[in-house]
Amino acid sequence: MKPKFYRVAVKQIEALDRNIKQRIRMGIYALPGGDVTKLKGYGDKFRLRVGNYRVIFTMAGKEITINEVLPLGSAYKN
What we know:
Blueprint: E1 4-5, H1 7-14, H2 18-29, E2 36-38, E3 45-50, E4 53-60, E5 63-71, H3 72-75
Parallel strand pairs: 1-5
Antiparallel strand pairs: 2-3, 3-4, 4-5
């Protein structure tokens, strides 16, 4: 299953260092496995933890959509 990416998420991934980018891509393509937690108060959103980065995504059935890739400090701020 190939996840879909929002344009914002693609830009955020491309702005990262090569090693971090590779780890995040490996984590995304291993979904729904890994350190995944449902976000409270955000409806159908989940987060994947990859080191100090968080991948925010939604799951509808077997379809996964990557919304954002953010560092820990700014991942949960509104």
